[in-house]
């Protein structure tokens, strides 16, 4: 695919992410996204086969960016694995506490909505969240191995429980417009990891 075509496609996806985070997926029309991206309205199908394919591509793009952030955090050789894990949770906290807890996580924003709306988007989100948990499991296992943290369960079960807790805390913080639940999630995370 030529570079300009890829750039335009990414501009559409990035623009869509910003709008969808504010409004939800079903409330956003393709025309709105293309107009905000400065792309001719009739050219949508040049980049995407359908709105479903567009939604799936938007979620994949979101997860690719998210994985890059997690991988950057985990690659800091000068820090312990416990510092990596806690830096990740601080990133999660900061992202979700932003803008009066309206957050920037498409999983929190769209999880329930797309599960009923699109099998392709649900499958992409399922795969993406599993890959997040895989990365968390590795960070936790590395922390157990280097002695910088300890857990009472397996690294996998701990990663799953913490991620689930943070998603729930993010949703309640969003409803309340206050980070109290995120503060509680951070405290429970520290106790769970013994850091």
From TrEMBL:
Entries under InterPro entries matching the protein: Homeodomain-like_sf, HTH_TetR, Tet_transcr_reg_TetR-rel_C_sf, TetR_C
DNA-binding segment(s): 29-48
Matches recorded under Pfam families: TetR_C_13, TetR_N
PROSITE patterns reported for this sequence: HTH_TETR_2
Entry keyword annotation includes Transcription: yes
MF (Gene Ontology): DNA binding
Domain HTH tetR-type, first and last residues per copy: 6-66
Domain of life, source organism: Bacteria
Keywords linked to the UniProt accession: DNA-binding, Transcription, Transcription regulation
Family matches, as PANTHER family: HTH-TYPE TRANSCRIPTIONAL REPRESSOR NEMR, TRANSCRIPTIONAL REGULATORY PROTEIN
Listed name of the protein: TetR/AcrR family transcriptional regulator, transcriptional repressor for nem operon
Species: Amycolatopsis pretoriensis
């Amino acid at each position: 695919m030529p570079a300009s075509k890829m750039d335009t496609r990414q501009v559409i996806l990035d623009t869509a992410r910003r709008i969808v985070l504010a409004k939800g997926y079903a409330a956003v029309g393709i025309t709105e996204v293309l107009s905000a991206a400065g792309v001719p309205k009739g050219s949508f199908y040049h980049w995407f086969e359908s709105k479903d394919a567009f939604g799936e591509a938007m979620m994949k793009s979101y997860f690719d960016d998210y994985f890059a952030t997690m991988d950057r955090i985990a690659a800091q050789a000068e820090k312990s694995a416990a510092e990596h894990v806690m830096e990740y949770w601080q990133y999660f906290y900061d992202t979700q506490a932003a803008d009066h807890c309206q957050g920037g996580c498409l999983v929190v924003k769209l999880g329930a909505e797309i599960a009923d709306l699109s099998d392709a988007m649900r499958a992409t989100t399922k795969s993406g969240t599993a890959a997040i948990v895989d990365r968390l499991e590795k960070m936790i296992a590395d922390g157990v191995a280097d002695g910088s943290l300890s857990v009472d369960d397996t690294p996998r079960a701990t990663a799953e429980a913490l991620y689930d807790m943070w998603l729930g805390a993010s949703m309640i913080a969003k409803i309340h417009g206050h980070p109290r639940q995120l503060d509680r999630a951070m405290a429970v995370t520290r106790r769970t990891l013994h850091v």
